[in-house]
Amino acid sequence: MAKELKESSMYIEPKPTTEARLENGEEAASKNFDDDGRVRRTGTLLTASAHIITAVIGSGVLSLAWAIAQLGWVVGPSVLFAFSVITYFTSTLLADSYRSPGPVHGSRNYTYMDVVRSHLGGYKVGLCGLAQYGNLVGVTIGYTITASISMVAVKRSNCFHKEGHGAKCSVSNYPFMAIFAAIQIILSQIPNFHELSWLSIVAAVMSFAYSSIGLALSIAKLAGGGNHVRTSLTGTTVGVDVTGPEKVWRSFQAIGDIAFAYAYSTVLIEIQDTLKSPPPENRVMKKASFVGVSTTTIFYVLCGCLGYAAFGNNAPGNFLTGFGFYEPFWLIDFANVCIAIHLVGAYQVFAQPIFGFVEKLCRRKWPENKFITKEHAAKIPLCGPNCKINLFRLVWRTSYVIVTAVVAMIFPFFNDFLGLIGAASFYPLTVYFPIEMHIAQTKIPKYSFTWIWLKILSWACLVVSLVAAAGSIQGLAHDVKAYKPFKTQ
Predict the structure, then answer these.
(1) Among the residues of 262-280, which ranges form H helices?
(2) Rounded CA separation 447/24 (Å)
(3) How far is CA 274 from the centre of its chain?
(4) Would you kindly state where each structural domain of the chain is located, as residue ranges?
(5) How far is CA 79 from the centre of its chain?
């Protein structure tokens, strides 16, 4: 893959101009195209915010009660707020890098790699690609596993309700992984991000729904009385809840969970490339980032803190399952259905940049190959009169979804490995590249006050990533030891 990334870093896609069309008397047609000759973008603050919320409020919100339990009332919420501020700040820097050399009147960059190429160049383009696409592949595999777990939870909940709370109710994940993959094969034929807005809006609504249900159940548990749980300023207690080494490793993992719960830089540029202009894309993207990050922070703090208050130091990894699979079973079912639907949309948000990268690379290498380049008109119900099918897109995207599903089936503990992938990509994509590109774009003098504090922020986040990676490796080693292939829950 590194070879392909290096080759693509030397390639700049030709940008047809509207001037060429105007010279041919196609002035009316030019109204349908942007300044780079592409079909006019239609994205708005609403659609960009929906994309961000879909990417940020993942199923990770369900583990925040556990994370707060490891860190306590002081450090836990402080870390949440700290990472929300860092994420918003670096996202504004990245938004300004979308055009180069200037943030408003420069040339567009369509992907994160294009942005790094324009501002930094060299070997850093390949490093960016490895970090970005490695993370995206990992996320799509992890979402396949997480969605199947939610579907299994619905099945088990219904079984417990029908057969009694003492029933075994063992359910396999694998049929549900296959169902999730089948849905993704269909949705993956959506050509690009520009036509994904409706799916992101639905997914964002679902994320609000299951987060709100978890929040409401926590409040109900607290209001019900008899809630004799232990909480503390420092979280889990050494010698009571955990051993000394467990406290350290769990704290590392908790910091990593919180840090990576905010990361959406991997798809920020692709989201920004959907926005119409005027107004300037960077201005709209900053507003969308503020809406997305502030909204998710409110939900994170409420779910994390109220979940910790409800369950104390014994908070489960998924605080929805902490209410049991019992009553009200229908509400737990609905929450898990919402999680599955949300992950259907979130999978596409993270998969589309992968699809676009591979298809762009193949079109460049084989421009005369009709299998790769030709669009075939097709009449498909509910798809509109202008529906087109590309055979290469059909085969390649279907194959990708199948491979991710197979990997998820073989390695069902891959969600823990996802933490390690996140640790490897959080620092470069969310912090390092945005800061370095901002320094290069604005020509900040070396060793100036601004240069120094930006570097300190970058180095501090590097330490956090290394700490989180260490916690993830320890957790992964523990899971591998207990791994039993094709085990039914």
Answers:
(1) 268-272
(2) 52
(3) 17
(4) 39-481
(5) 19
What is the DSSP code (8-state) at residue 446?
Answer: T
**Predicted confidence (pLDDT) per residue in 40-64, tens digit:** 888 888 888 888 887 777 656 777 8
Are 150 and 311 a contacting pair, CB within 8 Å? no
- CA pair distance 89, 458, nearest whole angstrom: 12
What is the number of other CB atoms lying within 10 angstroms of the CB of residue 463?
Answer: 10
Q: Which residues pair with 251 in a beta bridge?
A: none
Q: Is the pLDDT of residue 403 over 90?
A: yes
Give the separation between CA 152 and CA 392, rounded to whole angstroms.
Answer: 34
Largest CA-CA distance found in the chain, in angstroms, rounded: 80
Rg for the chain, CA atoms, rounded: 23
Q: How far is CA 93 from CA 60, 111, 269, 437, 474, in A?
A: 25, 15, 11, 8, 34
Q: Determine whether 275 is exposed, middle or buried from the number of CB atoms within 10 Å of its CB (0-12, 13-18, 19+).
A: buried
Residues 262 and 84: beta-carbon distance below 8 Å:
yes
For residues 358, 360, 364, 367, the Cα torsion angle rounded to the nearest 10 degrees is 100
Tokens coding 424: 């490897």
Burial of 31 (0-12, 13-18, 19+ CB in 10 A): exposed
**DSSP-derived secondary structure letter, 61:** G
Please give the angle made by the CA atoms of 192, 193 and 194, to the nearest 5 degrees: 90
Cis peptide before 101 (omega within 30 of 0): yes
Q: What are phi and psi of 341, to 5 degrees?
A: -65, -40
CATH architecture of 39-481: Up-down Bundle (1.20)
Sign, Cα dihedral of 107, 287, 428, 139: negative
pLDDT of residue 332: 80
The pLDDT of residue 24: 41
Query: Which is nearest to 257 in space by CA: 350, 207, 345, 319?
Result: 319
CA-CA distance, 354 to 141, in Å (whole number)? 13
Query: What is d(CA 276, CA 23) in angstroms, rounded to the nearest whole number?
Result: 24
**Rounded to an integer, what is the distance from CA 61 to the centroid of its chain?**
12
Instruction: Give the mean pLDDT of the chain.
Output: 79
Burial tier of 117 (Cβ tally within 10 Å: 0-12, 13-18, 19+) = buried
Q: What is the pLDDT of residues 155-176, one digit of tens each?
A: 887 887 787 766 777 778 889 9
Beta partners for 158? Answer: none
Section 397-406 average pLDDT? 93
Rounded Cα distance between 233 and 221, Å, is: 21
Length of the chain (residues):
489
User: What is the per-residue burial (b if ≥16 Cβ within 10 Å, else e) of 169-187?
Assistant: bebebeebbeebbeebbeb
